[in-house]
Write a structure and sequence with these properties.
Elements lengths: L4 H14 L6 H21 L15 H5 L7 H15 L14 H4 L3 H13 L17 H16 L11 H10 L11 E4 L6 H7 L7 E6 L2 H13 L6 E4 L18 E6 L33 H11 E12 L8 H12 L2 E6 L12 E7 L8 E6 L5 E3 L2 E3 L2 H13 L7 E5 H6 L21 H6 L2 E2 H5 L2 H6 L3 H5 E3 L6 E3 L4 E7 L6 H7 L1 H26 L7 H16 L7 H26 L10 H8 L1 H28 L18 H11 L5 H44 L2 H42 L4 H21 L6
Helix pairs in contact: 1-7, 2-7, 2-10, 8-9, 8-13, 13-22, 19-27, 20-21, 20-27, 21-22, 22-27, 23-24, 24-26, 25-26
Length: about 800
């Protein structure tokens, strides 16, 4: 039976996390990722004469497996890794972590158990890299990404900078349009590459591949980047360990900086020691022609290095703190010079708390030298509001990523989100690039209408602001609102003539009125028809899935088509619909397609939840059990009522309580035996109540047995159905009753949300102006008079 990818990764993380000893996650990752590396290269290259890496005798994962339980396992694992490193020029790369360190891994049996368990985790059949399990499916990359995100989350503020969130990496790759790279000889460079995750995500977008270059100052992190490249089938990528600013490694034969087609970077924010080791005033590479950054803030030092490293046709994307957009003094001069040269294509403001090394908000600065000479403005996006919470961090959703990329690459101006800002406007603001100066995301003030508060009625101005609904739901405005209020159609003010309306229905009737209106019904049918058309177009594709399935190609096709299907529709946000699909894919559908790609359409409980089998084939049996359960619940309710009535102090069942305070059946029976022969009338009445109580308890027990028997029979029928279900039935169950049913329900939620939003605003307006000020004053006067009258009767006088 195939292992679900999501379950595999989560169990891998939990197991690894439990094995941590005397170190934090920023250190433990070095052990886990080395183990992942050895497992991967052993599976992929062992026994292959044409392999890119040599797996020597005594240097494979299987050699580690043989060490489980060995009292010298730590030392011997070090030797295995050393053999592998020696054979492939990976000394100082994969042999950095010491597997025989008692301070981190424990002593004696503790170390043996911990390392034996760690090896056993990677023996999981689901982590088999020897074959391509599903074309286009990157089980290794996904496992690596899962681990890195969790390591970064737990590594703390000062130690999580080795990782750029995958969502940000995907945006950067898309905005530099590396998908337009046509040959492997084109180059991509990251001067502060960390573990290499940003480089890999960007390079992965190039259809024919690109040549990768990276430099990283930290030795252990640079080693991690080199491992990462091999793990992602980029063993020829050049990763160099050194300080990029003081000792840039990639140079031409004449000593000038090498230039690249694409550059991506997420440099450390506002580093104070950026100029250590060299003199910026006499920089050998001409990087500071636009000005020298402040002595204790290196943000612009990295940006200027990147600009110098771009070819004249190059494109780049760099993550920077928002301060680079508006800080003054030396940075203001550098910013002015860069803007004047036209190198900045756009700026994307990101949500706060996305990155693991800092919680401050950041932005992506998109650079493009190719069109710099003809550029007349900078395209700005404020995407700071689009995210979801993910534990202690914020995280970009699928819809946020897609919207940013679509809007940026299409240069689409969207109110309160994006606009092309001309250089003349930027110059007028003294080259301050702070996004809120140019993209106003604030919501308009919800004005209170004094005339409406004085005389009643809902201002037409407020109703007009809901025009986007009235345009799509013809006649709904008239159905909800009547012109005029209390005989007054208009009120003259010293400002303007303002019209007012009244609500035709009560506040509680607003939503039912919207849902029942023909305009809303017609709109719902339009949404349903759009989804039905998309579903009909792709159902044959889903039916045709085989073990040759390409999961990633499938979701790309489905999601792209869904966006196209909902793009023409008003009110509903196509990106919200897109998010429903991507969420369902992430949580459920990708596991299903992955299993189909491995084993085909097998009818098992992992692919077909038992409830689907029940709903489709055994609905009557399930309904019978539910009736039995309802009868049992009714009996339990009667029992609870009797216990509430008679188990209090001095009550009939008080003596039948256990130490825990519950009435026990055995104690109730014993009490009945004590009093049943007593001829006293009152005692016999108590005995009658006890008998009735015990009869109910017996009924409850019998009902429970009947339910268990029926459930056991249903379970047996379901199990038998799994054995006999045909492939055609499996496809119908999974595609129609699982996948498409879930997505249909999600789309319906979107239309219901529209009705809820409109209802909320209409009710808010109705309640705001429900009682005009004179009415409130009259009510206050009436209440005051009532209170004064009571006070006078009690002998008090209130003035």
């Amino acid at each position: 039976m195939p292992v679900k990818k999501t379950e595999l990764y989560s169990s891998l993380w939990k197991s690894c996390d439990e094995l941590r000893g005397g170190m934090d996650a920023s250190q433990y990752k070095d052990y886990v990722l080395v183990m992942l590396f050895v497992k991967y290269v052993s599976d992929k290259y062992a026994g292959r004469p044409d392999a890119l890496l040599e797996i020597p005798s005594g240097g494979s994962f299987q050699d580690m497996v043989a060490l489980k339980g060995d009292k010298e396992i730590g030392d011997k694992i070090n030797k295995i890794i050393g053999n592998l490193a020696e054979a492939n020029d990976l000394k100082g790369v994969i042999d950095v972590a010491d597997f025989n360190d008692p301070d981190k891994l424990g002593r004696g049996k503790e170390m043996v158990d911990r390392l034996s368990n760690l090896v056993a985790i990677f023996e999981n059949p689901g982590l088999d890299f020897s074959v391509n399990r599903a074309e286009g499916d990157d089980i290794l990359g996904d496992a690596y990404e899962y681990l890195m995100r969790h390591f970064a989350t737990q590594s703390g503020k000062s130690k999580g900078q080795f990782y750029t969130p995958a969502e940000v990496s995907r945006i950067m790759a898309k905005v530099i349009q590396i998908d337009q790279a046509r040959t492997q000889s084109q180059t991509i460079y990251d001067p502060t590459c960390g573990s290499g995750s940003l480089l890999i995500k960007a390079a992965d977008q190039a259809p024919r591949g690109v040549t990768i270059y990276g430099q990283e100052m930290d030795n252990a992190t640079a080693a991690l980047a080199r491992m990462n490249m091999i793990l992602h089938d980029d063993p020829t990528a050049e990763i160099w360990q050194d300080n990029t600013l003081s000792s840039p490694y990639f140079k031409n034969t004449d000593g000038t900086l090498k230039s690249f087609d694409f550059v991506v970077a997420n440099p450390p924010f506002s580093t104070k020691s950026w100029s250590n080791g060299f003199d910026p005033e006499n920089d050998l590479y001409g990087r500071f022609e636009f000005g020298i950054p402040p002595t204790r803030n290196g943000d612009y030092a990295f940006l200027l290095h990147i600009l110098r490293s771009l070819k004249s046709t190059g494109k780049g994307a760099v993550v920077m703190p928002h301060g680079v957009l508006f800080r003054g003094n030396a940075e203001a001069g550098i910013r002015r010079n860069i803007v004047r040269r036209g190198y900045i294509k756009g700026i994307i403001g990101l949500p706060p708390n996305l990155f693991y090394g800092t919680g401050i908000p950041a932005c992506i600065i998109a650079l493009d030298k190719a069109t710099a000479a003809s550029r007349t403005g900078i395209f700005m996006i404020d995407a700071s509001q689009g995210f979801s919470k993910d534990g202690p961090k914020n995280r970009l959703r699928h819809q946020d990523i897609r919207k940013i990329v679509d809007i940026f690459n299409g240069q689409i101006e969207l109110p309160k989100y994006s606009r092309m800002v001309p250089f003349t406007e930027i110059q007028g603001n003294d080259y301050n690039l702070n996004i809120p100066r140019y993209v106003d995301t604030s919501e308009p003030e919800d004005l209170q209408d004094i005339e409406a508060h004085l005389h009643g009625g809902i201002p037409d101005r407020d109703i007009d602001e809901l025009a986007r609904y009235w345009d799509v739901f013809p006649g709904l405005r008239t159905a909800l609102f009547a012109p005029g209020d209390g005989g007054r159609a208009t009120v003259e003010t010293h400002v303007e003539t303002q019209d007012f309306a009244s609500l035709r229905v009560t506040a509680d009737e607003v939503k039912p009125a919207i849902l029942a209106h023909s305009g809303f019904a017609a709109y719902t049918e339009t949404i349903t028809a759009a989804f039905a058309q998309w579903r009909a177009a792709h159902r044959p594709r889903l039916l045709a899935l085989t073990t040759e399935a390409r999961p990633r190609a499938l979701i790309d096709a489905l999601s792209e088509s869904l966006l196209d299907a909902f793009a023409p529709l008003r009110l509903i946000d196509k990106y919200d619909v897109y998010q429903h699909l991507m969420t369902y894919w992430t949580e459920t559908m990708q596991d299903d397609v992955y299993m189909i790609a491995i084993d085909g359409w097998k009818g098992d409980a992992d692919l077909i939840p038992p409830q689907l089998i029940i709903d489709r084939y055994f609905a009557a049996e399930q309904a019978a059990i539910e009736i039995l359960q309802a009868e049992k619940d009714a009996i339990a309710h009667k029992i609870a009522e009797m216990e509430d009535e008679h188990s209090g102090e001095g009550g009939l069942l008080e003596e039948a309580k256990s130490d825990a305070g519950n009435v026990t059946k055995g104690a109730a029976k014993a009490l009945l035996r004590e009093i049943r022969d007593d001829a006293d009338v009152e005692t016999q009445n108590l005995a009658s109540h006890l008998t009735a109580y015990l009869a109910l308890r017996d009924q409850e027990t019998r009902a429970g047995r009947t339910i268990r028997k029926a459930q056991k029979g249903l379970d047996a029928q379901v199990a038998e159905k799994y054995n006999t279900v045909t492939e055609a039935e499996v496809k119908t169950l999974v595609i129609d009753h699982k996948w498409l049913a879930a997505l249909t329900a999600a789309v319906q939620v979107q239309t219901q949300n529209l009705a809820s939003h409109l209802t909320g605003r209409v009710k808010e307006l109705a309640e705001r102006y429900a009682a005009p000020l004179p009415q409130i004053i009259e009510e206050v006067d009436t209440l005051s008079a009532t209170v004064n009258a009571h006070l006078e009767r009690m002998g008090f006088t209130w003035k």
